[in-house]
């Protein structure tokens, strides 16, 4: 059947490899005069029946601060997901390669962009589950957009999906996610605090020399990531707010967006 989220593979031209992701290769491509990124999905990596169900929900999410999903080719193997092309690649690499050159305005702007995309997801009652600088991408006009929302639900690799395992993103996860897998927009807010920390540390990895177990232990003791040297105090206060132990004590994305916007007006 040709539903509106199903693209005709014949209309797709595939080009160079952009990278490789959780599910398989990511290729540059063309679709209807547009430059696109095509994620090819290795069958053993994804629960694809569930994904196909969810693809239509994800296609309804549309916002200029989210990387757009144009459609999927599910009729063939490997299955392909076709996304808006993001010229400057992922945020974490971008931060690292522009070290020492990012102004306060640019760093705050990056946080604002992400908070806008996330406020939209929050208002759509959609939980990202894996927000981090590596899952945001930069467009040709230097806008940061949120990518890969909800996708961890379809990962079949249990090294990745259990909080006790090596690939689980513990360093971005709220305590209730680590302990009970309790995901919510407020656990996304925690991850956003870590993303802000990554931005103001120019792409450094959080808790660089510590194991997941050590991170869990220090969080339990009430310790948090330290203020990045480049972060102004009001910005660090927002990070600390995002890292409150109780989800209810954390701000919503709507509120974070408002607070960040008022800092950028100063
Ligand atoms: P996954 O999150 O599924 O593990 P990624 O999204 O990290 O995979 O994709 C791997 C790489 O492919 C990224 O680091 C990025 O360089 C590139 N890439 C992914 N999506 C796009 C896109 N929409 N536009 C341009 N490059 C992309």
From TrEMBL:
Domain Protein kinase residues, every copy: 12-261
Source taxon at top rank: Eukaryota
Entry's transmembrane regions: none
Keywords assigned by UniProt, alphabetized: ATP-binding, Kinase, Lipoprotein, Metal-binding, Myristate, Nucleotide-binding, Phosphoprotein, SH2 domain, SH3 domain, Transferase, Tyrosine-protein kinase, Zinc, Zinc-finger
Any single GO BP term: intracellular signal transduction
Residues annotated as binding ATP: 39
GO CC, any one term: cytosol
Family, per entry: Belongs to the protein kinase superfamily. Tyr protein kinase family.
Record's protein name: Tyrosine-protein kinase
